[in-house]
Amino acid sequence: MDTALIKINPELDTTVIKLQVEALRLRDYAEGSVVANLEGVKRATEDLSMLTNLKRSLEEKRKEYTQPLNDHLKEINATFKIFSEPLDIADKALRGKILAFNAEQQRIRDEAERAQFLIDQARAIEASLTQQTGEIFPEQTQVVIPGAAPVKKAYTAVGDMSTRKNRKWRELDFSKVPDSYKMLDVTKINRVVRAGIPEIAGIEIYEEDSLVITARRERSAVEPENQE
Q1: In angstroms, rounded to a whole number, what is the distance separating the alpha carbons of residues 68 and 158?
Q2: Under 8 Å between Cβ of 220 and 9
Q3: Which residues, listed in sequence order, are joined to residue 154 by a DSSP beta bridge?
Q4: What is the SS3 assignment for 1?
Q5: CA 210, 216, 222, 228 torsion: positive or negative?
Q6: Section 75-80 average pLDDT
Q7: Cross-strand pairs, 81
Q8: d(Cα 111, Cα 95) in Å, to the nearest integer?
Q9: pTM for the full model?
Q10: Residue ranges per domain, the chain?
Q11: Residue 155 bridge partners (DSSP)
């Protein structure tokens, strides 16, 4: 049986602990710092650069723990997907056949009932004409409603089947849909606004400042202790 070695307990990792200590120090310093002049802006920029490098180092350490797990998980899921795909195909095929059978049985019944409805209407019209004119009309054919019907429940030694109604929807006319059910395409709007579109009806496009911190990358924010 194949096995895989993974790293666990990052809270006991010396490098992670040092990174956490530095992160806590930066947090406390940032919450108590004051930016009131150019020097304050420079100090804050230095701290943000250090913070960026710390985040990068923590992310690298996180991946050391998670990447092997994620890679292995992807392989497992892909393998089992191959194994289960024939079952999914069979499941879909059999369900489809039962539903198609039921739909056909319902169609036959619906057509027979529709035919009987039209015959009943014709008889009512003929009866009315007979009263008015005395004309006698030939007897209309009686429609025999088929005995076959959709199977709502089935019981077997290994399992049972039942049907249920699932409420679904499809769009007919978007212009008639109430506004409360419409939503903005946020992803598309963000894309065209960033691309420079000048205006969109009903939407305000504005600019606001944000900070861009370009940290000079360090080899490691906190060097691991030498292992003997």
Answers
A1: 41
A2: no
A3: 161
A4: coil
A5: positive
A6: 94
A7: none
A8: 24
A9: 0.64
A10: 10-163
A11: 160
Determine phi and psi for 162, rounding to 5 degrees.
Answer: -145, 160
Amino acid at position 115, single letter: A
Tell me the residue ranges of DSSP E strands in the chain. Answer: 153-155, 160-162
- The closest alpha carbon to 56, from 19, 11, 12, belongs to 19
| Helical packing angle, 38-133 and 14-32, nearest 10° | 90
pLDDT at 81: 95
Strand pairing report for 160-162 and 153-155: antiparallel
Partner residues linked to 178 by β-bridges: none
DSSP codes of every residue in 134-175 = ----PPPPPPPPPS-----EEE-SS-EEE---------S-GG
pLDDT in tens, 115-152: 888 888 888 888 888 888 877 777 766 667 666 688 88
How far is CA 155 from its chain centroid? 34
DSSP 10: G
Distances (CA, A) of 132 to 124, 126, 127, 170, 186: 13, 10, 9, 49, 69
